[in-house]
Amino acid sequence: MNYNERKKRLQYLLEMIEKGRCQSLDKIAIHFNCSKNTAKRMLVCLRNDGHNITYCKVNRKFSMKK
């Protein structure tokens, strides 16, 4: 995977989180056809870019705090 493909995947993941469509690492891994560890690294990368992404145990999904 090259740099542009990786950025597009991260941007799409961020869009999914913003719209409330990310429910678990398993579902992220299935959607992007990757391992759970890769899904975790994708979330870490977005967090390192300054996005405040959290997981709500009550709603069982990832969300962004403003």
How is this structure best described in words?
There is one protein chain. The chain has helices spanning about 5-20, 25-30, 35-50, and strands at about 55, 60-65. The chain is of the alpha+beta class and about 70 residues long. The chain has a two-stranded antiparallel ribbon. It is globular, with a radius of gyration of 11 Å. The mean pLDDT is about 95.
Give the topology, please:
Elements lengths: L2 H16 L6 H8 L3 H13 L4 E4 L4 E4 L2
Antiparallel strand pairs: 1-2
Helix pairs in contact: 2-3
Structure annotation, total helices: 3
Low-confidence stretches: none
Q: What's the assembly state of these chains?
A: single chain
Radius of gyration, CA atoms, in whole angstroms: 11 Å
Report the count of strand segments. 2
Q: What percent of the residues sit in helical stretches (DSSP H or I)?
A: 55-70%
Features:
3 helices; alpha+beta; 66 residues
Overview in brief:
This protein has 66 residues and is α+β, with helices and mostly antiparallel strands. Helix content is 56%, strand content 12%. The model has no long low-confidence stretch (mean pLDDT 93).
